[in-house]
Amino acid sequence: MDNSPHILIVDDDREIRGLLGRFLEKHGCRVTTAPDGRAMRAALADWKIDLIVLDLMLPGEDGLTLCRELRAHSAIPIIMLTAMGEETDRIVGLEMGADDYMPKPFNPRELLARIKAVLRRGGERAEAPPVEDGQAMRFAGWILNPARRRLQSPEGAAVSLTAGEFELLMAFVKHPQRVLSRDQLLDFTRGRSAGPFDRSIDIQVSRLRRKIEPDSDPPELIQTVRGGGYLFTPAVDRS
User: Residue 124: is its pLDDT beyond 50?
Assistant: First the structure.
């Protein structure tokens, strides 16, 4: 179990914490549970957590507040649980930095699949990458080191990226100066097809733009192609 992923479930519903915890443990995960933000912080101080399943509706500090707090200093993957039909909350959650979301009620097997997908992306980064993925990539003064998952600004400052932002930037630098559709970007970053109302890629693009071109209006590095998707405009050099 030492190499098993450690999942932190943050939900005020004791029954959900118990049922989901037992299900994930049955499928090879280590599980810690917390009913609120205070217990979540204590768990993060005591354990190395690989992924957080975070409920939106919590007593006291809600899930959006906690997600924003986490993203201020951590890139731990977050899957947010939201009430069925609350699309606005899901969008805001993704904007705050959540890597994925699941509407309640949900099938535990689907949540497990989402957890594995997010952890798999992280595991692929941690493993020794192929030579071409281990090379630093330079664009418009920025330096992206895939092996270390490090992004450096033209001024030399380190810029923190969430798992989703990293995968999206990797998709762009691997396919520069080429229009990528939303379906292609979803496939590159999340390994699944987009639903008819899936706006997660648009939200991830917006978040990534704020980090790599915060003062550019209209955006210069990641341009929107009407009816097509997105175009990463700079040339990319590998070294």
Answer: no
